[in-house]
Amino acid sequence: MPRLLDLPGELLAHTSSYVDRSSLKSLRQSCRFISQLATDQLFRTVLLQPRETSQRGLQKILNNPNLRQIPRKIYIDTVDESLNYDGEEEQKWPQGWDNLVPQVRELPQLNAAVLCFDKGFTSDSRDRDYYHYMDFPQTPRFRFHAMHKFFSLLESLRHPIQDLGIRNLQADNPKDPKTLAKIGKVLSGLRSLRLSITSETNDAAPEHDLEYPEIRKFFKELPSTWLSPAAPSLQHLSLCSREYSGFYPHLDLSNLFFPCLKSLSLGNFCFFHDGQLDWILKHSDTLEEIYFDDYAVLYDFCIKEWNVDACALPRDTLVRREGNDSLYGSFEKRWHHIFDLFTEKLPKLRHFRIGRSNWYPDIPFEQEMDIEVGLYYNRYICCYDGYGPSPYMEGEDPKELATLENGWRPSPECDDEDRAALRKLLAKLGQSVQESYSNKHFGDCIVDLVERR
What we know:
The protein has 453 residues and is α/β, with parallel strands linked by helices. The chain has a domain at 19-176 and 187-210. It has 11 helices and 17 strands. It has helices spanning 9-16, 21-27, 32-43, 52-63, 97-100, 140-156, 177-187, 213-227, 274-281, 335-345, 415-429, and strands spanning 45-48, 73-77, 112-116, 163-170, 192-198, 236-245, 263-271, 289-293, 296-303, 319-320, 327-330, 351-356, 372-373, 380-384, 437-438, 445-447, 450-451. Strands 1, 2, 3, 4, 5, 6, 7, 8, 9, 10, 11, 12, 13 and 14 form a 14-stranded mixed β-sheet that branches. Strand 10 (319-320) and strand 11 form a beta hairpin. Helix 2 (21-27) packs antiparallel against helix 3 (32-43). The protein is globular. Residues 1-46 form the F-box domain.
């Protein structure tokens, strides 16, 4: 009778990667070979949090010559869950981290790092028109200090890391030239970059969330600050934003090219002109995976004159509609056009997902494979600047709102065409998906790939 230990070591190692932590701890009490496999899985990823127990755990690993050889990835989670948000407490750099964090460079196999912030963010804007019910504990000062410490550590490693992630990166870049220089150096040579981007909310009037100067400046600087330094070597790019972006606030990726890009994941971004499709298609020689999480076609939009410079389209491409002082535009491509383009012009594509992952209680991070494929009705949205609670009509049926007085246009009706084109794309990829289900996170019902209203 075959024994477990008769299996190849590589297969046993791969199998152990699916075992939960509790079982791995039990396996460490078995034979020496299985114990080593379990130990390797338990300590491949290490976590540092502000609480003292977490700091002591990492210190024990650093002090053990054998365990120190194992970690490949570290999460540095700055969130102090003991703080009382209602008490207006300001978070400080955890006591003991100044001594502990630099020691991380003594992990010889470390090649991946993630910096985690709180999802709540309050910028330094203090315009009297902007009112907040609370200021979150992690101030811009704290976040910039943490980023300086984090990138100082990564810059000092014996071998440059290959995978970098920042969870809840604030939509406000550091101002310190030394920090920016460290960021650029670390980004150079990366293989994988994941950014989930949080931004400030106006509690009293959320329709003004996109009017903060920080978020507008951040998205215009995102390509040059965070993407361009990594472009020559990057194989995986994941961008996920709390706010819909691309059009307003302006995010232009057209001047970027990633010659090694294999995997692209985008969340809460919008298609609104052909140049964005052209940008994806110019990576056809390498692109193998695409993930769209709550990604939408922005089929109709308007912008107030004073906000035109904050959107992605020049003034001369926008028009007025009768009886309205805003500037309007529209995009005629539909999802079936996009699916057909991917089918025809991305010969190396092997995996495609469009739909939703879990956006509660936080912006998705490292959840591409959790996206449940489905054509949700908010795959088509409109953006009407000045309307609230968000200028993006997400989850609404614009047909019920369309009137001659306001010039709004109804949502496209092309479920059959979109479904057929998506099935054609998935068939080409040899990819099977569940076509009917109830979304456990949102309670939505998908029938034959399309959300049922």
